[in-house]
Amino acid sequence: MSRTCAGGYGARVRRLFVTGLGGHLGSELGRRGPAAGWEVAGIMGSAQADVRDGPAVLAAVGASRPDVVVHTAYRLDDPSVNVEGTRAVAAAAVAAGARLVHMSSDVVFPGTGTRALTEDDEPRAVTPYGMSKLEAERLCPPDAVIVRTSLIYGGPAPAAQERMALDVADGVRDMAFFTDELRCPIAVADLAAAVLELAELGLDPAHAPPTGPLHVAGADVLSRLDFARLLCVHHGRDPTALRGVPAGPDRPKHVVLDCSRARALLRVRLRGAREVLAA
Questions:
Q1: Does position 1 have pLDDT exceeding 60, yes or no?
Q2: How many whole angstroms from its chain centre is CA 248?
Q3: What is the pTM of this model?
């Protein structure tokens, strides 16, 4: 049954299709989408459908008749999921006449400089994961918006970044955190709100939707060690149990995203981790 949409762009239900709907960002989009006026469907994970399976993805996307497809599914340890999955999802979005919001990463950059990176800087990944995410960006259709983000944390359950820090603080795991790799962690609530805004902007007939890369990350620049310590304090753990080491020569170091464009475009405030984790 039709209902008036929250964004005011007509009486028709707005439909959002999310890959990785069972993941950290995907599940946050699933929780927040209905309140923002979206009917949300998607692929929960690989047990439901392999995003590399073109015909399966095409069928799933086509059946939901989405206005916007948000591609969050990825694997750190399998470049084919990032590349071939994006190829299949992008093709399905085009076939369905849906706009694509593609989630990418700050590590498409080499991190060799000393200033914040803008969307106009040339990406040049140096890690296998970064290379696969950069290749995936290049598979997106011209009208897609490519959201480059950073370390994601927060939400109902600890994210991977939080779990690592807590496991070390609890003595469950032994590892060190990089002292010279600088990132801009973002709360999953802020990132999901930004993605939903970008999806909405694509449906506003009064404005041309944003396309191409857009940097969406938190306001604070933190080393991996400082970020892990903040997470521990937030969760009531002793941060002194964490130790730091320099990152190896094959790691991007200064991966700081300039998010000026996103801040000018979006209503959501992209908070820093210090503010979020102090709450």
A1: no
A2: 25
A3: 0.93
